[in-house]
Amino acid sequence: MALDFTAITQVIEDLIPWDTVRITDPSTGPRVFDTETGQYTYPEPETLYEGRGAVQTAGTAAEVIAIPGANLPWAPETRSKYRLLTPLDAPVAEKDQIVSVVAIHEGGDLALLGRKWRVQDPGGAGTIAVVRTTALDQIQQTRQVT
Question: Are 76 and 69 in contact (CB under 8 A)?
């Protein structure tokens, strides 16, 4: 007897306060000279998906892992554990693609806007799944110094 999770999937999807997320593939081509600005710029990344999604912390809010450099006595880079939830019919995010939140649901957290996350592993898949879960690492934000 095969189990049908269609009804459960719909219930779970109705419970999630979906935001609008964008998954892009970072541009890997050479920089291009912009004649208007006089600067070299990278090509625009390719948008692979823009639609329903939710970004959440994975674990406790204070769970940050420091990764030391091979020749450094300190840890210059941290790993912030997040997860992306998307409907099962959304494309599977691949390692090193970039996730951003482009619109939030009513009453949602405005702090999601402007942040970016790197996909750590391909989006999860399983025999019994009602939403797709993808591991993310927040890309460190640089502050503008004036």
Answer: yes
Give residues with Cβ within 8 angstroms of 13, minimum separation 6.
Answer: 87, 130, 131
Compute, in degrees rounded to 10, the torsion defined by CA atoms 59, 61, 62, 66. 60
76-125 pLDDT, tens per residue?
A: 556 678 999 999 999 999 999 999 999 999 989 999 998 999 999 998 88
Burial label for 6, CB within 10 Å (0-12, 13-18, 19+), is exposed
Compute, in degrees rounded to 10, the torsion defined by CA atoms 26, 28, 34, 38: 100
Banded pLDDT at 65 (limits 50, 70, 90): low
Measured CA to CA, the distance from residue 12 to residue 122 in angstroms comes to 22
Would you say 48 and 17 are in contact if contact means Cβ atoms under 8 Å apart? Answer: no
CB 124 within 8 A of CB 95: no
d(CA 37, CA 83): 37
Rounded to two decimals, what is the model's pTM?
Answer: 0.74
Q: What is the pLDDT of residues 54-63, one digit of tens each?
A: 999 887 555 5
